[in-house]
Amino acid sequence: MKLYHKLHQIKNLTTKNYISPKAIVSDNVIIGQNVKIFANSFISPNTIIEDNVIIGYPSTESQTEIRRFANRDTNDLYSFYDNNIKAKTSINSNSIVRSGAIIYEGSQIDKYFDCGHNAIIRENTSVKSNSFIYPNTLIGRDVQIGAFCRIAGTICNRTKVGNFSAMLGHTVHKFQIPIPGLIELSPVIGEGVTIGREVVIIGNVFIGDFATVITNSVVTKNVNDKSIYGGIPARLVKKKTDDELKELFDYIDKKRKEL
Question: Hey, which of 135, 153, 215, 217 would disulfide with 117, CB 3.0 to 4.6 Å?
């Protein structure tokens, strides 16, 4: 393993990449053009970083210092950002980050990660192995996403998504008090859950394991395990039968061996 920027000083002149001297990029990593990899970023082997990707972008806290021009000792933008980034960002092995994606500092991405075009992952978010982020997805800060998940839409700060879940809608806070930076409790989505397209989950509700929420529903209350909910507001449609759950359970049993 070696500091990648030393190997690519000449190449970077033509591709307009910036790879921080404080970043570590392992061997056998493919990097496109106009890529920015900031301080304290760690890229594991067998990873692909496509064009116009930013990894380790400064967090909200780091940007506060940047706006104050704290410790300004350079006129170079990227070096200036580097001096204000503290948290470690990591992309684990056999991952692909597609063009236009931005991953903020402090995010921890596990192996076999697949990130769609123009996705944004805010600071201190964790994504477990074999998860896929759809194009144009916005994931807030301090979000926890399990293994073998599929994530789309908008995911608000501090949302938790369990393993083997497809979260294709939106989680949002209630925003009952219009104070910037106010910390509100966030939705928690269980294991093996399917959230349909354009579903909106509001506030600190819990979606039970192996539940399904039908497309275009609005969830304002807890959803029971092994149930199907739908409507505005979402209500119980039916409990899932053992036959309906069998295919999901078989899939999960198979994938658990890969964790």
Answer: 135
- What the chain holds in terms of domains, given with CATH numbers, is 1-136 (2.160.10.10), 143-259 (2.160.10.10)
SS3 81: helix
Query: pLDDT tens across 146-189, in order?
Result: 999 999 999 999 999 999 999 999 999 988 777 777 788 999 99
What global pTM score does this model have?
0.90
d(CA 43, CA 24): 6
CA 96, 114, 85, 52 torsion: positive or negative? positive
Joined tokens for residue 116: 């769609």
Q: What count of residues does the chain have?
A: 259
pLDDT at 21 over 90: yes
Task: Report CA torsion sign: 174, 223, 258, 95.
Answer: negative
Sequence-distant (≥ 6) Cβ neighbours of residue 198 within 8 angstroms: 153, 169, 170, 215, 216
